[in-house]
């Protein structure tokens, strides 16, 4: 799933490509992806793109005051096309194409979603806050307003909830998903199942520093990359996420995994849990 650094990278790349370009039309290929009806997509025809931004994991195309907001969900992506087909795409359940934005010189971008589970969402609104998911977002962890005191208040309010889940909750902190929550906790040497309210003092400072550093470094690595290169950049710089069975780059211990119904987490027992493997939550009580 694209998370804060990749979505920021996409926004930076697309902002450079789309600035002061006119939208010729938007072709919708997956009708279920469009979540709004007023204004219609045809309202974008002939309007200029003023910029591309980000709200958490949401991409925001500012088109002369209208906002085309896209949530890429688990398997969505943006693919730049130097030349798009002249014929609009036909709706198809088998095609990964959800929508195509055609520009005034026949270049454009495809909004795609792989797999059969379709969760990608497209909104056309007058204000990004009209998108329910954007309106519910918590603070952005790279914003100057996200201080250590803000993080402390979030963790204390969460009580004994597991810290990994707290970091992933978009209404609590915007933009962190499964992959980067693994990475942040590994960098901070904290168990993913540690109770949030127990993270205080030096551990709180370490977690705060990890959030700012890991995410900030990932954004900087993404800066200047084309959309096609962002996924590879993310994967190649993961310390534990997606690296089950490989050595931890910090201590050399094997990276372990806990599986859930529709996801998994990765961690290093030596770095994060005092050498104790975490139990599978489906089978036994979690270790802290």
From TrEMBL:
Q: List, alphabetically, the InterPro entries matched.
A: FPG_cat, FPG_N, H2TH_FPG, Ribosomal_uS13-like_H2TH, Znf_DNA_glyclase/AP_lyase, Znf_FPG/IleRS
Q: Which UniProt keywords apply?
A: DNA damage, DNA repair, DNA-binding, Glycosidase, Hydrolase, Lyase, Metal-binding, Multifunctional enzyme, Zinc, Zinc-finger
A Pfam family annotated for this UniProt entry: H2TH
Please tell me whether the keyword Glycosyltransferase is annotated for this protein: no
| Names of required cofactors | Zn(2+)
* Annotated Formamidopyrimidine-DNA glycosylase catalytic domain residues: 2-93
One Gene Ontology molecular-function label: 8-oxo-7,8-dihydroguanine DNA N-glycosylase activity
Catalysed reaction equations from the record: Hydrolysis of DNA containing ring-opened 7-methylguanine residues, releasing 2,6-diamino-4-hydroxy-5-(N-methyl)formamidopyrimidine
A biological process term (GO) from this entry: base-excision repair
Q: Which SUPFAM superfamilies match?
A: Glucocorticoid receptor-like (DNA-binding domain) (SSF57716), N-terminal domain of MutM-like DNA repair proteins (SSF81624), S13-like H2TH domain (SSF46946)
Task: Tell me the protein family, please.
Answer: Belongs to the FPG family.
Query: What is the protein name for this chain?
Result: Fpg/Nei family DNA glycosylase
Q: Which organism is it from?
A: Nocardioides iriomotensis
Q: What is the lineage of its organism?
A: Bacteria, Bacillati, Actinomycetota, Actinomycetes, Propionibacteriales
